[in-house]
Amino acid sequence: MYKNGSIGFLDVLLGSGSISEFISNIDMVQKVHASDKEVLADLKDDYKVVKEKKEELDRLQSQLSSQKQREAEKQAQLTANKSEVSKKKANVAASNEARQDNIQDLNAEADHIMAIIQEEERKAREREERERKEREERERQQKQQQQQAQNGNNNSNGNSGNSTGGDSGGSSDNSSDKGDSSSGGSSGGGFTWPVPGHTRISSNYGWRICPFHGREKHTGIDIPAPYGTSVKAADSGTVIYAGYLGSYGNAVIIRHSSTLYTLYAHNSSLVVGSGKKVSRGQTVAKIGSTGSSTGNHLHFEVRKGGNSYGNDVNPWNYL
Question: Among 30, 146, 197, 250, whose Cα sits 20 to 30 Å from the Cα of 101?
Answer without folding.
Answer: 250
